[in-house]
């Protein structure tokens, strides 16, 4: 087949060239599966007024067929034009009415300029293609429960070409007219609502009207026998879709409530009504990410938003937050779109910022900014402190690099920077700038300079230096207060800003609040808080002089700024000893974080931190803070397991104490379901000693119970996973029985995770080979990667460590970015020793040609190994 295709390509090229008026044909685009920025800009300079007429024939089989008409204006015919189409079989090609053999290399069609005209052009392509199975293009999934087939599309950054021929770049916006023939019991969902559906016997023909102008990655088509819920009680018609076999796990009332609240909030905030008339949301399996902002047809990962039990407050908050994030994109990303992928960070940062704001203001989760601080923002601080940190705005040379920098800097640091810019400019000025930007560039493409220009104009100030310092310089700075007191009053006070530890020397302008607290008999008292705009290395704060000498100073009160806080020694001691007396939950959260940061940098021994936790956490009543500190305990458990055998005895006793504390607090919180489930889930994940594991087994078998806790199917799998992780007696048989009883997609995946996590050398070796050789479908491989080597199985992971390092370059060279984003973080070996650090450093030095994403992950893992060694060495005996 390849040889035959090559013959057609050669004939097509010769036929086209024979009529060319160009003496020397221009250099053709290289046969590579990506588009460079230069190629994209050159193409968009020539092509305009694009429209697509797409006709799909879907029957549920492994391939689909389609016909596409591309209409566009061309400004010159001096060089070939390429149309992106990935791995299709082309059966007919007609260019401006003339049938031709396709000059097609499996990646794009090349059209000789002699076949094109200055002005209007039409290209007609008939083709067929295999469905994707890796989550991109038009993905196909067969439900193991009932055999029903479900399709959904995912195009970001440049995978629309895996479904139809397209100019696959964001600045060639187009309209789309869609017709789909699909089985009679299917739903078909796209950016617009269908205008008619014709009955054709065993199939139906769906007609969709012309869409608004969209970038290719914002368009979508989903199809299958999805269950549908509708709600027309809000401002816009809303629909929700899910597979039939999981429909009973969906709580549509929550989805519709948050969706309607968000649409009303954003209509008001942006001053532009929702642009896509209807709002569809689709829960889909095997999804690569959390969700995707397809215009009017947003997709969500089933695994993150389907639960067998009633959702907890944390799960509802996450659902609301993701709904708001994707909804913000409908304006900022879909209505106004970046020109190229270097602007992707602004889309994601803005959606993260606005999504959190909307969650805080339009839902019951008015503490959403505290959740953001404790979760995503800490990820941003950590990422920005790594050797691989990068500016928020970075060049993106090709579509293959579009996701190289999609990380916590892109999302959470960017959102934090926008948040502090809003404080710097003022809420209403910031809002006015955003509204002006959306009004001016709606249905167009825009740049960072366009956005900053709109804000600068609204604020009537120059933001060039701010942009340079915050968006083009990497690293997180540190802020600390320095003050002196005499006779119980402050006689000097200044803020000291130090540059990032990563070597970046930039000192930034930022507005923060400085809070001063003093000890009381039963609580800490806030005596003063003042806003301060600081810049440079030192900023005097004369407004605090003469005030009462504080026991605790926090120089980023209520988290206005993006900066690491270094507490002065007096404040640090107060924080460590008076945590439970701080009534303000946001400040208490930030003080907990300061203690954990001190563990991370080696200045507070891990065992001392755990002593503080065991004393203070049982008294904590705030749901969000409980989750925040539990996350640090999970990190502590990982480190303690990684440090074996050096701190094995202490580690085992500490983790046993974590499990016992969690179980006790789960049993004491029967009146609060959310807290109880949070504590019980922690108990399951901390259980590793024989007593705890035996208790979990008894719960599973119905031989014991915890009042208020019902073992739903998700929780049963979590227990089975934990029992198999530690190879507890009878765990393998329990796994086999549960897998037989639950043959749903989630059950199959949970069983696989429990199988690969078992401390069995043969299982590990088999799955290492499967992963390296790509011997299973990618969704299975991804589960295996993420569960193969928990930290306590150090001896087992050493058995294949050399093989994984030695084959890293070959795997990286042969697999794509989607594969490596999962493979590199999970499969690069770690051991929490200096020898492991040296081995990783040698791998870095010896493999300079690794892809950007794999090299970055390798360097970060080496740095985290150094951190593990540091934390281990700082522990007191």
Automatic annotation (TrEMBL):
The GO molecular function terms of this record are: alanyl aminopeptidase activity
Enzyme class, one word?
A: hydrolase
In what residue span(s) does the Peptidase M1 membrane alanine aminopeptidase domain sit? 261-470
- Source organism, top-level taxon: Bacteria
Q: Which NCBIfam families match?
A: pepN_strep_liv (TIGR02412)
Q: Which residues form the Aminopeptidase N-like N-terminal domain?
A: 51-217
Q: Where is the ERAP1-like C-terminal domain?
A: 552-861
Q: Which cofactor does it need?
A: Zn(2+)
EC number from the UniProt entry: 3.4.11.2
Reaction(s) the record says it catalyses:
Release of an N-terminal amino acid, Xaa-|-Yaa- from a peptide, amide or arylamide. Xaa is preferably Ala, but may be most amino acids including Pro (slow action). When a terminal hydrophobic residue is followed by a prolyl residue, the two may be released as an intact Xaa-Pro dipeptide
Q: Which residues form the signal peptide?
A: 1-22
Protein name as catalogued:
Aminopeptidase N
Keywords (A to Z) from UniProt: Aminopeptidase, Hydrolase, Metal-binding, Metalloprotease, Protease, Signal, Zinc
At the highest ranks, the source species' classification is: Bacteria, Pseudomonadati, Pseudomonadota, Gammaproteobacteria, Alteromonadales
Q: Which family does it belong to?
A: Belongs to the peptidase M1 family.
């Amino acid at each position: 087949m390849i040889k035959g295709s090559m013959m057609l390509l050669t004939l097509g090229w010769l036929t086209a060239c024979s009529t060319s008026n160009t003496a020397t044909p221009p250099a053709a685009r290289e046969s590579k599966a990506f588009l460079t920025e230069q190629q994209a800009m050159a193409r968009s300079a020539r092509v305009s007024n694009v429209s697509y007429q797409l006709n799909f024939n879907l029957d549920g089989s492994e391939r689909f067929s389609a016909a596409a008409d591309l209409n566009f204006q061309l400004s010159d015919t001096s060089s070939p034009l390429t149309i992106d189409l990935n791995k299709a079989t082309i059966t007919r090609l007609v260019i401006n009415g003339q049938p031709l053999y396709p000059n097609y290399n499996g990646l794009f069609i090349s059209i000789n300029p002699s076949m094109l005209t200055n002005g209007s052009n039409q290209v007609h392509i008939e083709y067929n293609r295999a469905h994707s199975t890796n989550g991109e293009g038009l993905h196909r999934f067969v439900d193991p429960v009932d055999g029903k087939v479900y399709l959904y599309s995912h195009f970001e950054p440049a995978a629309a070409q895996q479904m139809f021929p397209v100019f696959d770049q964001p600045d060639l916006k187009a309209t789309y007219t869609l017709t789909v023939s699909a089985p009679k019991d299917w739903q078909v969902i796209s950016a617009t609502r269908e205008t008619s559906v014709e009955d054709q016997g065993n199939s139906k023909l769906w007609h969709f009207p012309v869409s608004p102008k969209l970038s290719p990655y914002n368009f979508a088509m989903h199809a299958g026998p999805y269950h549908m819920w509708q709600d027309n009680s809000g401002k816009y018609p809303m629909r929700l879709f899910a597979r039939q076999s999981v429909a009973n796990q969906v709580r549509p009332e929550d989805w519709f409530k948050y969706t309607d609240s968000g649409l009303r909030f954003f209509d008001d905030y942006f001053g532009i009504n929702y642009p896509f008339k209807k709002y569809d949301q689709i829960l889909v399996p095997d999804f690569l990410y959390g969700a995707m902002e397809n215009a009017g047809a947003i997709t969500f990962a089933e695994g993150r938003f389907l639960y067998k039990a009633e959702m907890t407050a944390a799960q509802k908050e996450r659902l609301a937050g993701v709904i708001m994030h994707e909804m913000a994109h409908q304006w900022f990303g879909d209505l106004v779109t970046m020109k190229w992928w270097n602007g992707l960070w602004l889309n994601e940062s803005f959606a993260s910022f606005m999504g959190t704001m909307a969650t805080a203001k339009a839902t019951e989760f008015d503490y959403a900014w505290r959740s953001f601080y404790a979760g995503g923002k800490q990820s941003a601080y950590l990422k920005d402190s790594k050797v691989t940190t990068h500016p928020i705005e970075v060049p993106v040379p090709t579509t293959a690099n579009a996701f190289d920098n999609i990380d916590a800097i892109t999302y959470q640091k960017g959102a934090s920077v926008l948040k502090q810019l809003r404080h710097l400019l003022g809420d209403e000025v910031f809002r006015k700038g955003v509204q002006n930007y959306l009004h001016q560039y709606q249905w167009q493409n825009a740049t960072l300079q366009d956005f900053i220009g709109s804000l600068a104009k609204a604020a009537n100030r120059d933001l060039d230096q701010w942009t340079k310092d915050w968006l083009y310089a990497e690293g997180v700075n540190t802020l600390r207060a320095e003050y002196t007191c005499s006779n119980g009053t402050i006689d000097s006070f200044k803020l000291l800003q130090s540059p990032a530890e990563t070597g970046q020397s930039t000192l930034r302008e930022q507005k923060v609040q400085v809070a001063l607290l003093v000890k009381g008999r039963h609580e800490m008292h806030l005596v003063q808080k003042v806003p301060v705009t600081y810049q440079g290395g030192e900023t005097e704060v004369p407004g605090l002089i003469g005030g009462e000498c504080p026991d605790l100073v926090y120089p980023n009160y209520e988290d206005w700024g993006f900066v690491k806080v270094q507490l002065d020694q007096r404040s640090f001691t107060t924080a460590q000893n008076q945590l439970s007396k701080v009534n303000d939950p946001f400040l208490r959260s930030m003080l907990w974080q300061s203690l954990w940061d001190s563990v991370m940098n080696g200045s507070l021994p891990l065992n001392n931190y755990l002593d503080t936790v065991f004393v203070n956490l049982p008294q904590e009543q705030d749901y969000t803070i409980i989750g925040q500190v539990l996350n640090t305990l999970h990190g502590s458990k990982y480190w303690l397991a990684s440090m074996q055998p050096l701190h094995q005895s202490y580690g085992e006793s500490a983790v046993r104490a974590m499990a016992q504390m969690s179980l006790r607090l789960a049993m004491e919180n029967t009146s609060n379901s959310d807290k109880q489930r949070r504590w019980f889930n922690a108990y399951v994940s901390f259980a590793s000693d024989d007593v705890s594991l035996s208790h979990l087994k008894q719960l599973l078998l119905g031989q014991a119970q915890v009042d208020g806790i019902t073992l739903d199917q998700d929780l049963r799998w979590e227990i089975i996973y934990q029992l198999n992780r530690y190879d507890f007696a009878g765990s393998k048989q329990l796994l086999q029985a549960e897998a037989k009883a639950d043959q749903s997609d989630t059950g199959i995946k949970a069983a696989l995770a429990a199988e690969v996590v078992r401390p069995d050398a043969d299982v590990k070796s088999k799955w290492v080979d499967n992963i390296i050789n790509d011997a299973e479908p990618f969704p299975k491989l991804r589960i295996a990667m993420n569960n193969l080597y928990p930290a306590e199985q150090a001896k087992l992971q050493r058995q294949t460590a050399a093989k994984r390092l030695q084959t890293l370059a070959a795997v990286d060279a042969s697999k794509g970015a989607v594969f490596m984003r999962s493979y590199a973080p999970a499969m690069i070996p770690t051991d929490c020793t200096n020898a492991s650090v040296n081995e990783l450093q040698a791998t870095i030095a010896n493999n300079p040609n690794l892809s950007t994403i794999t090299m970055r992950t390798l360097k970060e893992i080496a740095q985290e190994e150094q951190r593990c060694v540091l934390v281990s060495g700082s522990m007191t005996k």
